[in-house]
TrEMBL record:
Transmembrane segments: none annotated. This is Abasic site processing protein. Belongs to the SOS response-associated peptidase family. Keywords: Covalent protein-DNA linkage, DNA damage, DNA-binding, Hydrolase, Lyase, Protease. It holds the Pfam family SRAP. The keyword Protease applies. It comes from Streptomyces uncialis. The keyword Hydrolase applies.
Amino acid sequence: MCGRYASSRRPEDLAGIFGITAWEPTETLAPDWNVAPTKEVFAVLDRPVKDAEDPRPVRQLRTLKWGLVPSWAKTPEGAARMINARAETVHEKPSFRRPFTARRCLLPADGYYEWVTAAAERELEVEGRKKRPRKQPYFVTPADGSVFAMAGLYEFWRDRTLPDEHPLAWWVTCTIITTEAETTPLAGAAGDGDGPGTLAEIHPRMPLMLTPDRWDAWLDPARTDPGEVRALLEPPPTGLLRAYPVGTAVSNVRNNGPELLTELDGPEEATLF
């Protein structure tokens, strides 16, 4: 799964990377090294500009709320449970089926966090002792420092308890598509020593990263055939990512700052997660 990630690039930088031609400066988000569900996040999408004379799609940078609310939902209360959509079934699930064929986006990140249960604590789990496991966080990021473009979907939800002119009458929310984690050795020194040698050893799921050669096809709203879209869900080439241990401060969503990405020499004595 993906339940926490980092996104520190400025909108100006993202505009250059993704070829953005429209973005609203008032929607600028501050760098966030501890993005959590229900937060506002940057998303790249192709869509006609509202009230523009030209109906053709435009590459936009928008801020969306992480946690998809289906258009047919009566309330937005389940958003925190819809932060991820499985690549294997996203085309058939009622909550994701429509946006999968019509409203796809990219969620830019520096990388994502995942937690590994420490060996000593894993033994306690096996023995069935009633104790929450201690977990070591890892940061997974492109080995070359490039942007981690996560495949996502977005949806519109109308709060019918509010009048049309109310600024909160419409919600625009999103979800991250996940896939099976890589089982090939990680790039660099991530597999050295006692640390995990593959992403699958950290967690069985990972966000689906789309490489630049698939961005245009994924964002194209004219591509509506489910079979064609599903073909874009193939995992990227292996060996592009590295993972390293970071401090357990990231486990608390109130902590935020570039120090959360500091690479440790090895796993630390983890706090309860």
